[in-house]
Specification:
- By secondary structure, the protein is an alpha/beta fold.
- It is 31% helix and 13% strand.
- The chain has a single domain, classed as Aldolase class I (TIM Barrel).
- It has 11 helices and 10 strands.
- Helix 2 links the parallel strand 4 and strand 5.
- The chain starts with 19 loop residues before the first strand and ends in a 36-residue tail after the last helix.
Length: 356
C-alpha cells in the first residue's frame, strides 16, 4: 500500500499542490481541469461567448485548464453548440477567454477535436481526405496560438476520429494508415506542434474505454467495437512509446472506471513505464487518490472533470480540506448560465455575478 504524505490542515505539502513543469508549461499546482463539453456556444457561428469567459475565469486557479474540445473545421463537427477554432471570429472570441484567464494568473490550453461520422457508417477516408484533415489540425493549432492559448491538446480519446484510426476493430485499411494505425495521429501531432515553439502540445488517449463508457444508445450493441482487451492495450503501448519521438508537453491518460471507488493506479503505471515525458492521470480521482498517484511518481498531475463543474475553487477546497459540491447533470449540456457560472465559491456564499 502506498503511503501518502500528510499535509497540514491547510494543504501543507500535499503532492497535488506542488508546482510542476509539463514541457514548457510551468504550473503552480498539479490540479488540472479536464476538457468538459458543456454546449454553451448557442450561436450560428459556434463562437465562445461571455459565459465562456466567466466560466474559465472562475476556474483560473487550476494549475492548468484544458478548455473544452473545439472543432478544428466545419467537417469535424459532430454535436451542436460546441465552439470551434477554425475561423477568425472564433479565435477572436477565444482571445477574450485567454486574456481573462491570464489576467487572473491562470494557464489554459485548448483541446482540438474532430468528431467525424458515426463509426458504423463512415466511409474510408481517401489519402486526399487525410491530408486535408491533417492540414485542418495544423491551421486550428495556429489559430489557438494566435488566440493566446498557452498550448493545445489533441483529442485522441473516446470514440472519435483519432481513436477510430487506432482501433483494430474499426481500422481495416490496407494502406499505410491501416498497417500503421498510429500514422494519422503522428502526422497530426507533427502538424499541430509546428505552430509552437518548445513543448506546448499534449495528447489525450483512452486505452481503457469500454462499453461502460459508451452513450446509453450504444450500450445494447453486441458488436460495440471498443474494449480494453490486451490487443487494444498493446496497440496503445506502441502509440505511447512512439509519442516519445515528438516534442510533446505531456500525455493525458484516461484510466479505467474506478472500482470501490478507487482508481486503478496500476493501469496508469503501465503507460508511465513507456512514456518519457510528463503524464496527467484522469478518471475518478479525488484529493486523496490524486495525492497518492502523484506521490508514487506514476503521474505528474491529475485532471478532474465533474468536480470542476460545481467547484470553480477546487484547488482551494483541496488545500483547505473543504467538502466538494455536486453538479446537476441536467445542466451539464444545456441551461445557459444555470449550472455553468452560478456555482458559489464557498458553500452559502453569494453567487458570482453572471455577464449580461
Amino acid at each position: 500500500m502506498m503511503r501518502q504524505k500528510q499535509g497540514s490542515e491547510f494543504g501543507g505539502n500535499r503532492p497535488l499542490l506542488g508546482p510542476v513543469a509539463l514541457g514548457d508549461l510551468r504550473l503552480p499546482n498539479r490540479v488540472v481541469m479536464a476538457p468538459l463539453t458543456r454546449c454553451r456556444a448557442t450561436n450560428e457561428d459556434l463562437v465562445p461567448t461571455d459565459l465562456h469567459t466567466a466560466y474559465y475565469g472562475q476556474r483560473a486557479s487550476a494549475g492548468l485548464i484544458v478548455a473544452e474540445g473545439s472543432w478544428v473545421s466545419e467537417r469535424a463537427i459532430g454535436f451542436p453548440n460546441v465552439p470551434g477554432i477554425y475561423n477568425e471570429r472564433q479565435a477572436a472570441a477565444w482571445s477574450r477567454v485567454t486574456d481573462v484567464v491570464h489576467a487572473l494568473g491562470g494557464r489554459i490550453v485548448l483541446q482540438l477535436w474532430y468528431a467525424g461520422a458515426d463509426a458504423r457508417s463512415v466511409r474510408e477516408l481517401t489519402p486526399a481526405d487525410i491530408g486535408r484533415t491533417v492540414a485542418e489540425y495544423g491551421a486550428a493549432s495556429e489559430n489557438a496560438r494566435r488566440a493566446g492559448f498557452d498550448g493545445v491538446e489533441i483529442a485522441a480519446n473516446g470514440t472519435y476520429l483519432m481513436a477510430r484510426f487506432l482501433n483494430p476493430r474499426l481500422n481495416r485499411r490496407t494502406d499505410a494508415y491501416g498497417t500503421h494505425r498510429d500514422r494519422l495521429l503522428f502526422e497530426v501531432v507533427d502538424a499541430v506542434t509546428a505552430a509552437w515553439d518548445g513543448r506546448r502540445v499534449g495528447v489525450r488517449l483512452s486505452p481503457y474505454w469500454t462499453i461502460d463508457d459508451a452513450p446509453s444508445a450504444d450500450r445494447s450493441r453486441d458488436d460495440y467495437p471498443y474494449t480494453a482487451d490486451e490487443r487494444t492495450l498493446v496497440g496503445h503501448d506502441t502509440v505511447v512509446a512512439g509519442l516519445n519521438e515528438h516534442p510533446l508537453a505531456y500525455l493525458h491518460l484516461r484510466g479505467p472506471a474506478p472500482r470501490n471507488p478507487v482508481p486503478d493506479i496500476d493501469a496508469i503505471a503501465r503507460y508511465r513505464k513507456l512514456f518519457d515525458g510528463p503524464l496527467i492521470a484522469n478518471h475518478g480521482y479525488d484529493r486523496e487518490t490524486g495525492d497518492a498517484i502523484v506521490e508514487a511518481g506514476i503521474a505528474d498531475a491529475v485532471s478532474f472533470a465533474r468536480l470542476f463543474i460545481a467547484n470553480p475553487d477546487l484547488v482551494c477546497r483541496f488545500a483547505l480540506g473543504r467538502e466538494t459540491a455536486i453538479s446537476d447533470p441536467a445542466t451539464h449540456y444545456s441551461g445557459g448560465a444555470r449550472g455553468y457560472v452560478d456555482h458559489p465559491i464557498w458553500p452559502g456564499s453569494r453567487t458570482p455575478p453572471v455577464p449580461r
